[in-house]
Amino acid sequence: MKKIAFLVLTLMLRPWAGPAAGYPLDASEETGISRLEVFKLAESVLLEQGALKPGSLLPTKKIRLNLRGPGFEMPAPDPGFTAEVRNMVGKDAPAYGISVLDITDPKNPRYAEINGNRTQNPGSVGKIMVLLGWFQALADIYPDDIDARKQVLYETQVTANGFINRDSHVVPFWKRGDPKVIRRAIEIGDTANLWTWLDWMASASSNAAASQMISELVLLREFGASYPVSRAEADAFFKNTSKSKLAKKLSAAIQTPVTRNGLNVNHLRQGSLFTREGKSRLPGVSSTSTSSELLRYLVLMEEGKLVDPWSSLEIKKYLYLTDHRIRYGASPALDSSALYFKSGSLYSCRPEKGFTCGKYMGNKYNYLASTAIVETHGNNPPLRYIVVVLSNVLKKNSAEVHENFATDLHALIGRSH
User: Fold this and answer.
1) Which of 11, 28, 76 is nearest to 317 (CA)?
2) Taking the alpha carbons of 110, 114, 119, 122 in that order, is the dihedral positive or negative?
3) Which of 188, 186, 191 is nearest to 203 (CA)?
4) Are 291 and 122 in contact (CB under 8 A)?
């Protein structure tokens, strides 16, 4: 216990990365993600210190899709429910896009929507489109062989190259026998399997990992069942393919899957890589989202209709938050709830007399996107709802605003049941 406590203390003293998500802690053997093993070993201490919440401890077998079965019909916005949600944001309502679907009783769902078609750059939430692209490509290559898909994810070792430059997000490094977890930025030469790279992208929201995974996704689609290829073959492909063709291949990798899965790419699009050098190597387009289309993504996932049921469930596992909770997820009201979460922030400031710029407090733009599925299993009945909040409320700390919104919405959903 002393050794574990020392390890955890070392882990806790490291700076936390950006938007956190994760994978069930008991899945380290299946996936090879070492973070899961060390967090599981230190579970009790992490709980005591507040780094993990009770809702973060579901085993893999408890991660389920909520809307499988007979066809789910999306309800029209409920005027009363919508009015209650609108009251929570008050005069700032025009700066929001909000979609809330209460599926506590899936036979009688309720939907609230405020500016559901208001467009906004999704920031790191766009990484869920990269997840979709990966699972779509694997299903296309191995349509009837899930074991082959798992084998690719487990056995393929990827080494960081120039696509990662440059990113300050830190990710956890640990292997059996190490006395501590080290959190640092990914560096050229770092090697891990695909499961781990996707976890770095989802869990630590590493832009380096996301860009590396987009480049690997383009290779997967290009070489099919022959993937992975040697570094020399990969380098030759990117060097000898024109930028215009690379742009088309990028679009096919991360935008075509959106359309194929019944979503509107004009309302939900990750258009580019997440690092400067990645963008120069693989040219892309702009990214956009709406709260209503992001919610549709999550509904399709819960129905098992993102690619196929296995892929939908794997994407949901990646969204299961088993790391430090921030922004919307930091609300204490959600501590006992399982939270499937992705968040993304973009803000910018310009000189303004009397105003001091701060993190999440832009006065030029102040984008924050939060997507969450909340499952409160200890409630009677168990609460289940999906929420997407896009905001551009200037000069306010948007992380605190989203946290407060989460607290109020959870109370509202609870009162209604």
Assistant:
1) 28
2) negative
3) 186
4) no
- What confidence score (pLDDT) does residue 51 get? 86
* Paired tokens of 304: 């098992």
Scan for tokens 């009783």, then name that residue. 105
Q: Where would I find the H helices in 115-206?
A: 127-141, 146-155, 194-203
pLDDT in tens, 213-225: 999 999 999 999 9
Q: How far is CA 174 from each of CA 52, 144, 319, rounded to the nearest angstrom? A: 18, 34, 21
What architecture does CATH give domain 79-121+293-416? 2-Layer Sandwich (3.30)
- What digits encode the pLDDT tens for the residues 374-410? 999 988 899 999 999 999 999 999 999 999 999 999 9
pLDDT at 2 over 80: no
Beta strands in 238-393 (DSSP E): 268-269, 288-289, 338-348, 365-376, 383-392
Which residues are CB-contacts of 379 (< 8 A; sequence separation ≥ 6)?
A: 414, 417
Q: Where are the domains of the chain?
A: 2-18+124-288, 79-121+293-416
Q: What is the spatial distance between Cα 51 and Cα 43, in angstroms, rounded to a whole number?
A: 9
pLDDT in tens, 321-380: 998 899 999 999 999 999 999 999 999 999 999 999 999 999 999 999 999 999 999 888
Backbone φ and ψ of 149, nearest 5°: -65, -45
Q: Identify the CA nearest to 311 among candidates 215, 379, 319.
A: 319
Q: Which of 127, 200, 59 is nearest to 371 (CA)?
A: 127
C-alpha 291: how far from chain center: 15
| Cα–Cα dist 39/186, whole Å | 20
